[in-house]
Write a sequence for this structure.
């Protein structure tokens, strides 16, 4: 098993390296640019479009190769630091693990299954524990070494549940000597299965006996429906107990995602195409961190009555976060299986921390002390204040929500494009569909950008009020991003229509291709930089706050005056260096590579 | 329903036979409803409950014995794990540690054991729990004793 571990480690290292690649875009041309941008100064989101003269050729290649590279990017992304597991894959892995344990420890498969379940399906843990102290492990999980000798000297025996007498051979027991009749066994098993996943740890009904009841008993005694439930619980436990696998949260999706822990970005895309954050299982939310998303999501639902009720009447289990309603009993709470976390209702601390030291159990002193110090009042007041600033919240929420619905719309358009328009366009313009991939990529980019943009509003909401420079800079970046995305969206939606509805092949279709592909890559770059900048917490604003205060203000000011870059820039500098061999020239402002014949940038109308 | 009735009937017959065997417990089935039982238990000796007779009310669910019966004290008792007002009992075997192999009789035995060995770490009666936890055994005992005299003993004279 050690060898397997080693392999695993090797994999991890490999994926981490790959991950770096992913961050920098996965394409060499882009990487060059990133390195340069990074080395010089991170403060270049707004200038990325045109300031680096040396990048021209790179950029040109990038556009030319774009349709070829696109596939690699998509393909390599899905093999990065995570694996998609279908239900069959999970089942297969589970079976393999059971077989492994069963052969190595020479125990029946049912016992191996119980053992694995107890140690969260970690083959290594089972080995470690078992070989450290087999006796103790056997006792803990209820796998008895030898079935105890049954007292079958008598012809008849009493079922210990219904107290009826039966012939001995019609009574059953787990690996112990406690006999019960089939009817009672069935009822016992069925009750337990319908009680929840706790049935995976079912024991002999005798209170003093810990003998485990395994899959074999369930199969013999449970009705089909319950067997299926048990099977599902077992499957679920394989995913839910594992710290490396999580279910895809998309409705109706049965896949799970295995993630190499500690390998960078948590964003994963399931085979159902749903992108989500593996860490918090909310939808993908870069550049915003999980904590902010949780706050934001809670906030979004906090206005609803449901949430108010849950807030007023329940507390989340400190470990598994399921809301718990306390309906009776003492302050010593035990969460339902599989969590079973024991905690104090008042302070939500672990019960094991409570004792003489903390002063007591029932009127938890930690809670009292914290309350006096104002910790809990503080939380209350914050909630109150948040309600008061509802207006501010609404501002951000509306924009968040409208980007969300734009994204849904774009997603639908993308599907329509793929399923209907692409074919038509291919015929009208006499272009093979494979040559039209740039359109799909443009739409995919739009969908992705809408997602990022959406989360920037959550980001903006939680940006501290007092950090004015940061806020200003953030709003500037956001405004630019929005403007850039609008341009791309406009091009992919409106301009495309002309080509779609024309009678025959259009002459300037190739120009359109160059323009849209260019816009796509420019927008992608901009958004990737934006995401990185926000993930860094706009840290360069801190370091450069003093020297850049003025200039950043100017930038922000001028952008407001102009209403975003691209609409009538006043900059008129010309750069002869920005041309390549074929005479094509890269726009000073947006880096878009224009054909020789035009003198204003096709993209941003900036003059050459 | 039928299974629970049959099982309760078995327990009923068992109780009739064992009555003499366990003098501390007297289980009585309601005349008209086999799902309602009451029990009289004697306070265990060498505890402040010694000499008292406590009445318990059992309400047996239809899923019995797969589900535990609901039990509460009808007699007022000062005990960390019994709610002073409602008589509700905090005992694991009546909640998640229930097993269908337990009987009403064994539940009574478990409650007697709980009276002798209070569990102040999960208290329902905070005052009582506080006394025990702060080490004031004497205070706890005298309170428990007083309530035993007031509520669980036949009035003299």
């Amino acid at each position: 098993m050690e060898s397997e571990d080693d392999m695993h480690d090797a994999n991890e290292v490999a994926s981490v390296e790959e991950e770096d690649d992913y961050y920098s875009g996965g394409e060499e041309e882009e990487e060059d640019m990133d390195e340069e941008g990074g080395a010089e100064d991170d403060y270049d989101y707004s200038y990325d479009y045109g300031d680096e003269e040396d990048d021209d050729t790179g950029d040109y290649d990038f556009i030319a190769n774009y349709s070829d590279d696109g596939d690699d990017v998509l393909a390599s992304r899905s093999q990065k630091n995570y694996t998609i597991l279908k239900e069959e894959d999970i089942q297969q892995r589970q079976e393999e693990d059971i077989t492994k344990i069963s052969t190595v420890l020479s125990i029946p498969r049912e016992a191996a299954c119980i053992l694995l379940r107890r140690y969260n399906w970690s083959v290594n843990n089972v080995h470690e524990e078992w070989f450290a102290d087999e006796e103790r492990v056997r006792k803990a999980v209820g796998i008895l070494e030898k079935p105890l000798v049954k007292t079958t000297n008598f012809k008849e025996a009493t079922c210990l549940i219904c107290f009826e007498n039966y012939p001995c051979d019609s009574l059953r027991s787990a690996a112990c000597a406690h006999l019960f009749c089939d009817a009672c066994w069935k009822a016992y098993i069925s009750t337990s299965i319908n009680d929840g996943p706790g049935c995976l740890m079912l024991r002999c009904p005798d209170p003093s006996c810990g003998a485990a009841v395994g899959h074999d008993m369930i199969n013999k005694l449970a009705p089909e429906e319950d067997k299926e439930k048990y099977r599902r619980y077992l499957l679920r436990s394989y995913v839910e107990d594992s710290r490396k696998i999580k279910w895809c949260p998309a409705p109706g999706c049965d896949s799970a995602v295995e993630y190499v822990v500690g390998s960078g970005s948590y964003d994963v895309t399931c085979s159902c195409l749903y992108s989500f954050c593996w860490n918090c299982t909310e939808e993908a939310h870069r550049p915003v961190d999980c904590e902010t998303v949780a706050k934001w999501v809670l906030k979004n639902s906090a206005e609803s009555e449901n949430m108010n009720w849950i807030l007023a009447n329940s507390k989340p289990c400190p470990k598994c976060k399921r809301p718990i309603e306390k309906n009776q009993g003492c302050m010593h709470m035990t969460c339902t299986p599989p969590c079973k976390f024991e905690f104090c209702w008042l302070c939500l601390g672990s019960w094991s921390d409570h004792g003489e030291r903390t002063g007591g159990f029932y009127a938890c002193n930690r809670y009292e002390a914290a309350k006096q110090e104002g910790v809990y009042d503080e939380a209350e007041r914050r909630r109150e204040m948040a309600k008061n600033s509802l207006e501010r919240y609404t501002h951000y929420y509306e924009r968040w929500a409208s980007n969300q619905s734009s994204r849904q719309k774009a997603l639908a358009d993308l599907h329509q494009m793929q399923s209907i328009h692409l074919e038509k366009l291919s015929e009208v313009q006499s272009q093979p569909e494979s040559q039209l991939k740039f359109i799909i990529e443009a739409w995919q980019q739009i969908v992705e950008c809408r997602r990022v943009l959406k989360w920037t509003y959550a980001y903006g909401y939680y940006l501290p009020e007092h950090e004015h420079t940061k806020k200003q800079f953030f709003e500037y970046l956001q405004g630019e991003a929005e403007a850039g995305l609008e341009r791309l969206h406009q091009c992919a939606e409106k301009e495309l229509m002309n080509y779609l509805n024309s009678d025959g092949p259009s002459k300037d279709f190739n120009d359109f291709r160059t323009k849209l592909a260019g816009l796509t890559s420019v927008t992608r770059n901009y958004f990737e930089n934006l995401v990185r900048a926000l993930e860094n917490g706009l840290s360069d604003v801190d370091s450069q706050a003093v020297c850049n205060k003025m200039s950043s203000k100017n930038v922000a000011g001028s952008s407001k005056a102009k209403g975003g870059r691209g609409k009538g820039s006043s900059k008129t500098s010309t750069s002869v260096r920005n041309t390549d061999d074929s005479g094509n020239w890269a726009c000073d402002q947006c880096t878009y590579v224009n054909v020789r014949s035009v003198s204003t940038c096709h993209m941003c109308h900036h003059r050459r | 329903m039928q299974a629970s009735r049959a099982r309760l009937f078995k327990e009923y017959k068992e109780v009739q036979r064992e009555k003499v065997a366990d003098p501390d417990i007297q289980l009585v089935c309601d005349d008209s409803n086999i799902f309602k039982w009451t029990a009289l238990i004697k306070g265990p000796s060498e505890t402040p409950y010694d000499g008292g007779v406590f009445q318990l009310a059992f309400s047996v669910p239809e899923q019995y014995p797969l589900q535990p019966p609901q039990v509460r004290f009808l007699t007022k008792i000062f005990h960390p794990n019994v709610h002073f007002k409602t008589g509700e009992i905090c005992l694991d075997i009546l909640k998640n540690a229930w097993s269908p192999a337990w009987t009403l009789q064994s539940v009574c035995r478990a409650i007697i054991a709980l009276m002798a060995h209070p569990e102040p770490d999960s208290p329902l009666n905070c005052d009582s729990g506080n006394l025990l936890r702060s080490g004031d055994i004497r205070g706890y005992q005298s309170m428990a004793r007083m309530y035993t005299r007031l509520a669980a003993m036949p009035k003299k004279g």
Remarks:
- The longest helix of chain A spans residues 390-428.
